[in-house]
Every structure is written in structure tokens, then in C-alpha cells.
Predict the structure.
Amino acid sequence: MKKVLTIAGSDCSGGAGIQADLKTFSALGVFGMSVIVSVVAENTSRVIDIQDISPDMIRKQIDAVFEDIQSDKH
């Protein structure tokens, strides 16, 4: 099974960002991994707030994924 990594924000309504990417990966039959760069409080009609993840934590997420699983390069 192909392995892919998405680096994106988290959309709690599920319509975009990490959540949408992982749904797409699943539909395409690939194993999805994620690195979250921001958390967004939103619904289908408005964005309420956004909080960015620190660059250090983003690096740690990427390192954790590639230390153990890695993604396919194709």
C-alpha cells in the first residue's frame, strides 16, 4: 500500500484540511499520515478562530513520521 503525507491545517467541520485529505487518501486506497500546522475552529458558514502550531512542533511531527513509517517517493 502506498504511503502519503499531508501537511495542512485541521478543519473541525471535516470539509477541508487534514480531514479532507485523509478521506481522499482512504478513497484512493493509500495509507495517509498527517502533520498538523494549524487548528481551525470553523463550521460550514464561518471561521471562528485559528491557532497555529509552533514550527518546532511541526518539525517534531515530521521527524516522528519519517523515523517510523516514511512515505513513498512516487
Remarks:
- Helices lie at 17-27, 55-68.
- The two ends are 12 Å apart (CA to CA).
- The chain has two helices and three strands.
- The mean pLDDT is 92.
